[in-house]
Amino acid sequence: MHPTLHTELCDLCGIRVPIVQTGMGWVAGPRLASATANAGGLGILAAGTMDFDQLRSAITETRGRTDAPFGVNLRSDAPDAQDRCQLLIDEGVRVASFALAPQPALIEQLKAGGVIVIPSIGAKRHAEKVVAWGADAVLVQGGEGGGHTGPVPTSLLLPQVLDTVDVPVIAAGGFFDGRGLVAALAYGAAGIAMGTRFLLTRDSPVGQAVKDLYLSKGVTDTIVTTQVDGVPHRVLRTDFTEHMVRTGAVTGLPRAVRNAIRFRRLSGLRWRDLLVEGRAMRQAQDLSWSQVVMAANTPMLLKAAMVDGRPDLGVMSSGQVVGVIDDLPSVAELIDRMIDEAETTLKRLGA
Fold first, then answer.
1. Do both 273 and 201 map to the same domain?
2. Dihedrals φ, ψ of 246, to 5°?
3. What beta strand segments (E) does the chain contain?
4. How would you classify the pairing of strands 138-141 and 147-148?
5. Which pLDDT score, from 0 to 100, does residue 123 have?
6. Residues 6+ positions from 232 with CB-CB distance below 8 Å
7. How far apart are CA 173 and CA 229, in angstroms?
8. Which residue has better confidence, 13 or 270?
């Protein structure tokens, strides 16, 4: 492999190639994370849609599928976040990633236990904050990315962050091939992270009908809406999401309350736990109480589409990159292809 493709991220996480599979709820389970790890990248389990026992089982299953390092994506505002961090320490998980900035105490706990901490950020000031708290690296997602996203494209956000922090930076949002990997490295990033591209592989647990729907979409077939959970969220454009966008908060809140009840049953949390979690979320993200209530929409609407196979009743997070993906390779085939493309690109540039 070209020496340029072995970066400080590889050394930090013990991986062969600087490619990260993001922790997508209901999608990034043991099968996908272990396939990524076995192919040389960093596979990440999505713990946000798992209860504590499910997370323990998922870690055990992943370890049974791979000897390579992998990570777990945690919710920093979960009532049992401290217990989950201790579980990662006890189980020897290599990396803890966070979609929201973890509190300094969680970072300190994880680092003391030998776990690498990599928060995801969407603004320069967020990167400065988590690095000051001790984060080992940051994952920078630009506006092209799926799920919760900001307005600044990767091409502008990435150099801003690189010029600000002195830890490895992982670029996300708009990446799908080896050329993009080389472009990110040229900026100064230590690697790239991808969600939609890994979702559209044969190792992804998402049903074929849902994958086919993704493959039918173009680069303009996603929308960013606050109607999912009160904060900007990039999803596939469907009849359901078009209707949801036209639906105001008056009708959206009752739906969110119903989903909060369903999520409580699914997660096994007590109402008291949900209130504690909601209060922490409100403080950490500066949300209104209506936005906190709407947050329950995210796991349930994603589950309806991704797990239950009902895109007509749910939402599908997606980056704009969906419009340039037209196949379903295995994870191993995808990563091998990307590295070949990256090496070809580097040789062309060198010539």
1. no
2. -75, -10
3. 19-21, 42-46, 71-74, 95-98, 116-121, 138-141, 147-148, 169-172, 191-194, 222-225, 233-236
4. unpaired
5. 94
6. 148, 149, 150, 151, 224, 225, 226
7. 20
8. 13
Which CATH number do you get for residue 196? 3.20.20.70
| Amino acid type, 256 | A
Query: CA separation (Å) from 50 to 57, 70, 104, 230?
Result: 10, 17, 23, 22
- Asked if residue 142 belongs to a domain, the reply is yes
Between 1-15, 94-108, 168-182, 277-291, the lowest mean confidence (pLDDT) is in 277-291
Name the least confident of 19-33, 108-122, 214-228, 262-276: 262-276
Q: What is the rounded average pLDDT of the residues 47-75? A: 97
CA separation for the pair 101, 345 (Å, rounded): 35
What pLDDT is recorded for position 267?
47
Would you place residue 322 in the very low, low, confident or very high pLDDT band (cuts 50, 70, 90)? very high
242 and 130 within one domain? no
Percentage helix, strand, coil, to 5, in the chain? 50, 15, 35
pTM: 0.89
Coil vs helix vs strand at 138:
strand
- Map residue 224 onto helix, strand or coil: strand
Do 167 and 247 sit in the same domain of this protein? no
What range does the domain containing 123 cover? 3-208+324-350
Mean pLDDT of 268-283: 50
Q: Kindly provide the b/e burial profile for residues 281-302, where b requires at least 16 CB atoms within 10 angstroms of the residue's own CB.
A: bbeebebeeebbbbbbbbbbbb
94 and 70 Cβ atoms separated by less than 8 Å: yes
Burial category of 226 from C-beta neighbours within 10 Å (exposed 0-12, middle 13-18, buried 19 and up) = middle
119 DSSP assignment: E
Q: Pairing state of beta strands 138-141 and 116-121?
A: parallel
What is the distance between the alpha carbons of residues 289 and 253, in angstroms, rounded to a whole number? 11
Is the domain of 174 the same as that of 232? no
Q: Which residue type is seen at 305?
A: A
Q: Report how many domains make up the chain.
A: 2
Q: Which range has the top average pLDDT, 125-129, 239-243, 244-248, 271-275?
A: 125-129
Rounded to an integer, what distance in angstroms lies between the CA atom of residue 203 and that of residue 123? 32
